[in-house]
Amino acid sequence: MKKIISFLIVLIFFFSCAVHTKGVDDALVKENRDAVSGLKNNTNNIVIDSNMVRKHLYTLAADNMEGRQSGTPGIEKAAVYIENEFKKIGLSTFGDLESYRQTFTFKNRKSKEDIISSNIIGVLEGKSKKDEYVIISAHYDHLGMKKSGEGDLIYNGANDDASGVTGVLALAAYFKKVGHERTIVFAAFTAEEMGLIGSTYFGKEIDAAKFVAGINLEMIGKTPSFGPNTAWLTGFERSDFGKIIQKNLEGSGYQLFPDPYKNFNLFFRSDNASLARLGVPSHTFSTTPIDIDPDYHQVSDEAETLNITVITQTIQAVAIGTESIINGEDTPTRVVLEDKK
Ligand SMILES: [Zn+2]
User: 195 alpha carbon to ligand 1 midpoint, in Å?
Assistant: First the structure.
């Protein structure tokens, strides 16, 4: 009896060591995995759930944010909201920055005026691979307000890209809970709509060789042309990042496809491009049928036009799909920029 007990103690000790070394709460990962496949049966996920998604989305896309144009009081409200969420989650600051803000001045290409704005950046330092970075990003700026006219004047940018920022916040909370071997940088970029300016500035300040992958979320609020429980990835053929995600999603009930809108050149039109140009396998996830979307860059891009279930399931799928990269088991190939002739 005694022998059996001490054997059991040794066994338990080894098991708990193994779990700690891996740094991942397997129960939570399993719960999330079950939830993605289970959401077809409306099982609620307590880790990344629709209530949290709804709260972030409706807050960031609210009229009082005035369309979140870089350099306006409206975007400042969004910045404060993101900072407070980062603080609640318990993220640390990035590099030499003393706060979550990476503030810089740039010239607005249209108006030629100087604008001061900030990327909002938080970090979860990795355990066994803290010098290897994965970035999870979305842009929190949008188009602001119409100068004059009747009726709705506010470009709420609910899909573009409050939905993506919602994903960044939800994934930060998730990975804080379940653990991660690599360091994860969570970035809400400014001035994407003015020409990928926030992410370009961020790119200049980093050692790109340390960034093993870039996960950008853009317009994840509408059902894709491929049907429910799917998303598409820009630049799919430019690294094996997408194949890794597909492998991890096998059996989850959620599928990832290559970007079907080749003529739109979307790989170079969102913040993933700023890091991809430095060689980082950095891609954008989206769900929106952009060729027929009536709300793209319109004042009608409101939270009410989005499907909360699509956003929630997509964020859960990104969590599962990127898990082996976050934990250092998979490293995507560096990105190829030239198109194959
Ligand atoms: Zn966008």
Answer: 11
